[in-house]
Design goal:
- Two copies of one chain form a homodimer.
- Chain A is built from three helices and 15 strands.
- Chain A is mainly β.
- In chain A, strands 1, 2, 3, 4, 5, 6, 8, 9, 10, 11, 12, 13, 14 and 15 form a 14-stranded antiparallel beta sheet that branches.
- The relative contact order of chain A is 0.16.
- At the A-B interface, strand 3, strand 5, strand 6, strand 7 and strand 11 of A face strand 3, strand 5, strand 6, strand 7 and strand 11 of B.
Chain lengths: 269, 269
């Protein structure tokens, strides 16, 4: 087992019930488990409850902060069909719901139909010209950073020293440090792994609470580096969208993501 | 009452239960009720079940075709808070579930926080240079077209005569024929009212089954014309996203939408 597959594993615990464990290995800068990681745990249970393994579209609403520790999952089946199945999950910790999901799953290895892609992969500098960091080093960064190898264009890190680009964009190269990106649920995690693009706008840096995250997985992931590209074009009255793309190194789109989040600020309701 | 408000109305029918009626006035070219219309009916019940009236983010998974007639709705509350409430709805007709939703609602009139918008409204020709059609005329078009006044750039209608633009884009001006666009749930309908942008790609024209539609409503709608802009950049293996923007005539973004749909084809699973 690799870390991601291991840490998202769930066990059946009776009809429509599952147990999992949120580990300390996916901490964001807020020192709580990353939302995409928690979404992947939910997806693991959903995939166990229905005949289709891959989330064509999965939405999660984050209703309370996740904590390290056991998680109880209840799944519900909305519909099972030949090509798609639709299901829900609710994740509880200590009797409190932390995440509710709704998604439609398919078998991507059997996806069949026309392909027309007009978008192009993000215009990133070569990986060797980026700021690189290998995973597994430990140290002071939140543990999530240790799970990945990164290569990030310097300009997208400028916000760390108060020099944001002024554009709501970020991107870079990413792969699991232990090569687990081929787990079909990996895109759920990777869609929430990058720093929020809103950090490159002239707003205070802080926690960016995700209200809702939706990921469309389009392709089984090939091993190797992925390129991520994330944009925030509409920050209005304290709400923002974060749109994401994940591309593999054969220039295929792997996943599209969109989340609704609040502008960086101290936690409130 | 106006047509949209009237046709999306629901009545309480016991704890967590509501009844509504899908009318024949929102038919798409497939002669079934439009998905955005059905989503608005669900939202009406959800808003009745929780303290917050406006869908900040609402996702619907369409699991069976809707039909004209009575609809039974069951709502579920995930969480109620000061600023946001999260709820679910399931819509049934004749004992069969047609739609499952999950959404987080707020009171947009109290939204507060920074605004930074880098996107610009769609570059449409002046309304008077577009192909115009007023609602309420009756005739052969599906009934939904009668609900709106339209102004569409000619180029985006070329697919009707086999002359698609080759770009997965469409847009135009729209308003309710009876001026009901200020219903705060109107964006749910308007986000699904335009012809699919995939029609402008070189694929056969046909039914485009929506698997999932998510709408982020950002602003209470001002009266008057709205501008819609819809793109499909990734048609892969028969799956496509349709990203939408709705702008009001003071250049404020009203809603963002994204749906996952299947490429045009005869209905399958």
């Amino acid at each position: 087992m690799t870390v991601f597959s291991d840490d998202t594993a769930v066990e059946p615990a009776g009809e429509d019930r599952w147990t999992g464990h949120l580990t300390e290995r996916w901490h964001t800068p807020g020192n709580t488990p990353n939302g995409g990681y928690v979404l992947a745990v939910a997806a693991r249970a959903m995939a166990g409850a229905i005949p289709h393994p891959h989330p064509a579209s999965l939405t999660g609403h984050f209703v309370a902060p996740p904590q390290v520790g056991p998680v109880e999952i209840r799944t519900g089946i909305v519909r099972t069909g030949k090509r798609h199945s639709t299901a829900t999950a609710s994740l509880h910790q200590d009797g409190r719901e932390i995440l509710r999901t709704l998604g439609t799953f398919t078998d991507l290895s059997r996806a069949d139909g026309p392909t027309r892609v007009s978008a192009t992969p993000p215009a990133l500098p070569p990986r060797e010209d980026c700021k690189q960091r290998s995973g597994g080093q430990g140290g002071d960064l939140p543990t999530m950073f240790d799970r990945f190898d990164w290569a990030t264009p310097e300009e997208y890190l400028g916000w760390m020293s108060g020099k944001g680009t002024g554009r709501g964009e970020t991107g870079g190269y990413i792969r699991f440090a232990d090569a687990d990106e081929t787990d079909p649920l990996a895109p759920l995690m990777l869609a929430d792994a990058f720093a929020p693009p809103v950090f490159n706008l002239d707003v205070p840096i802080g926690w960016v609470p995700t209200i809702e995250l939706t990921v469309h997985v389009r392709k089984l992931v090939r091993p190797g580096w992925l390129r991520g590209w994330f944009t925030t074009r509409f920050l209005t009255d304290g709400y923002l969208e974060e749109d994401g793309q994940l591309w593999d190194d054969e220039d295929d789109i792997v996943a599209l993501s969109r989340q609704l989040a609040l502008a960086p600020r101290p936690p409130s309701d």
